[in-house]
Amino acid sequence: MSAGSETVRLTTAQAVIRYLANQYIDIDGSEKRLCGGGFAIFGHGNVTCLGEALYDHRDELPVYRGQNEQSMGFAAAAYAKQKLRRRFMFCTASAGPGTANLLTSAALAHANRLPMLMLCGDTFLTRLPDPVLQQLEHFGNPSLGLNDAFKAVCRYWDRITHPAQIIQSLPAAIATILDPADCGPAFFALPQDVQGWTYDYPVEFFERTLHRIRRQAPDANEIADAAALLKSAKRPVIIAGGGVQYSRAVAELTAFAEAHAIPVVETIAGRANMLAAHPLNIGPIGVTGSSSANAIAERADVILAVGTRLQDFTTGSWTAFDKSARLISINAARHDAGKHRSLPVVGDAKRALTALDAALAEYKAPGTWTDTAKAERHAWDAYVADNVRPGNRPNSYAQAIGVVNDLCDKRDRIVTAAGGLPAEITANWRTLDIGTVDVEFGFSCMGYEIAGGWGARIAQSETEPEADTIVFVGDGAYLLMNSDIYSSVLTAKKLIILVLDNGGFAVIDKLQNNTGNTSFNNLIADCNIAVEPFAVDFEAHARAMGAEAETVANPAELAEAFERAKAAARTSVIVMQVDPHDGWTAEGHAWWEVGTPHVTDNERVRAAHVEQEAGRARQRRGV
Q1: Which cellular components does GO assign to this protein (predicted)?
Q2: How far is Cα 386 from Cα 375, in angstroms, rounded to an integer?
């Protein structure tokens, strides 16, 4: 037999896992296994075949037992984000409800452009035992099943109906996962019988393969057009998005801004692109941003957006900029680069900024403009300093954020999601080091906080074991998903979790009130309940899952508890009640479009609708 025709007989499941174990990536000159391992909850649809294959590769691909499939997906997404999309984790779930639980986390990864591989059980291809346990029957389409639902939330989707198909499908999925323009989750539906079927695979399919992330060079004409427009600018602004970090272009962004004296504002995903102390960092922009960033954004004549999809919380539902302002958008994804008639520069941010810097030559923004931006930031800093000051009002998110900000180490990673905390952290957190903030607001998904913290800690411990992962979570999100406190203790992946209890879904209660509505079904006290409302004993609950835990009464006690948590060897949970009404950051907000009733008998709702619609006057309408 010739070398080129050598084969090895494997099951489909064995071949999938052997292939994954032999994929590597070049990270700054060091070769790492591309897949960092995975999260698994086994059931009848994946334990017998896929479980057997994973056991044989448990050293190369460590498997973490999940408590909930959705939280496994969140942990995988957070792992990929901490690794700047250069490594990923897989999730495997059984056929039926186990796989269905992954839908939300797949949507989160899709919205945030994060790599994740899902290996999920499916019904039998032969259909001989149909209908089987947990099968959804579609009488007019027997090929349609639950797993087809993932087509809407994945960048790559395939159902393996023959063992040979993975020879084409696995490389295609990996290519998608590593594509800067098309990155996102990949899904494989693995029928239970096909998982165990065998095939004589070419040995070379399993050879060690080294991958590199593509750096797409921008088109020279697009760079020239962008440079010409920027040179005409009297009031330029740079919007720095999450793509700056994925491109590892932080140094180039900073050098570009300094060379041309252009103020920089950050998106929520782009928080921690620049240190808080950098004089050209004018603050976070948008609905949950800063007065400083929004003030210069609305006066800017040319806006250079780098690595951002220009989500509504960044653009203030497209009211944050003057209607006559021109947009330039640097993005690896063509779809993002062309939004709202932006002048597109399609390509890698690092390469594009370098090329644009050369094309701009000696151009600098007028000194008066840069000085104005710095003055706005100085005023915002003064506001934040007072906003986070303990004792300025009842216990608040901002006060807790200020305490942690003062006491944490610069490489500690901050994780939060959904609710009111993303806004409060975006506005009030002062970045101590690059790439240390994960505010999940691409999908704004409650439940990500603790699960994402666990995934981030797994990633962080591989390279920065001395740093901590710090999770901010509200009581509502804690009740939604908390079981990975137990996961973190079991796996010795220490977290510091701050549970800030405001008695319900307080930020939505605030939105409800701000639109003229009466508090209803958000705060516990305003729900349909049969007993007196009471606070959950989060401390006791966390202790029951093996964590250290304590309850504090105020920010001073929080500071002392945080120091103890830093010194602790395992996960620590600190609980503090905060005011649901009087604790919000009041400044810095841009207009945000929400639907309000056009007809109502409620005068307060009618007045709020009129006020809401008045903000639409500044809205850009796609042009």
Answers
A1: acetolactate synthase complex
A2: 17
